[in-house]
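W.,

You were right to be curious about this one. When I first looked at the sequence I had no strong expectations either way, so I just let the prediction run and decided to look at it fresh. Below is the sequence, 323 residues in total, followed by the output.
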Amino acid sequence: MSLSSQTQPDLDTVREVASDVHRAISTVIQGKEDVIGTTVTVLLAQGHLLLEDVPGVGKTMLAKAVAKAIDCEVSRIQFTPDLLPSDITGVSVFNQETRHFEFRRGAVFANVVVGDEINRASPKTQSALLECMEEHQVTVDGHTYSLPGPFLVMATQNPIEMEGTYPLPEAQRDRFMARISVGYPSATAEAQMLLSHGSTDPLTALQPVTTAEQMRHVVNAVRKLHAAPALRQYVVDLVAATRSHPQLRLGASPRASLQLLRASCAHAALTGRDHVIPEDVQFMAATVLPHRLMLSGEAQLARATTESITADIIRNTRVPAAS
């Protein structure tokens, strides 16, 4: 059973906005259509995105392209070892004239927050984003301040084997809806990049293709998509399987279930369907689950990966029959 046909105009708007954003990002990031597709899906699902890869493959460029494609407030945080939590959230400053404390907003007060090399800051500073990402608010000195909507954190990080990095706390990894790796471009795409990026910066030519208000509309439309009870149970079964897998010492949380369902709804909307099917869940589970899982000692010695274990769980979890 699906929603009323009255939702079709909303779905058409979702696909139109997604297509415009995808096309705009493609002018900057070439040869990475699957990466851009996942990025747009997370954007529609109102999640947060973690870009992990070696330096120089375009992680920051991708994040900046997404930010510029939306006509909204954007901020960029360069994470360094000496960055303080108050630099992110803000700080109360005493005004000598009014004799009162005034709150000065931190960099997190924006619609799109680009966090560059997030794992170069200390765990204490990284944790300053926990409340922001989960509750879309900031609490400073006992006062709570709401963040603007839509709110998206796109963070880049280098692999933890790189010098000068700190591993992200488990609680923060769990708040990212998806983790993707940009990867090296193909030879053809890299040659095209040299041609197009060699003399000009493609970001300067990128114009916004949507607004914050329109993004709020499409996010609400995506959340209205129908997910049958059997489909929701399928999401629960997949996540529960990570908690009992013998090669994992930490499985996915209930937050992962919610974010997997939301991502699946966004993926369904991008295909023009007003309801979620198991293939949507399977496709998004490969991106939503692996970064939340922690391998057991034996699995690490066997050089297993969370990606391969997630694929194994997807294969072995019973798929609900079509209703």
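Here's what jumped out at me. Confidence is low (pLDDT under 50) at residues 1-6. And, maybe more interesting for your project: The longest helix spans residues 8-26.

Coffee later to discuss?

I.
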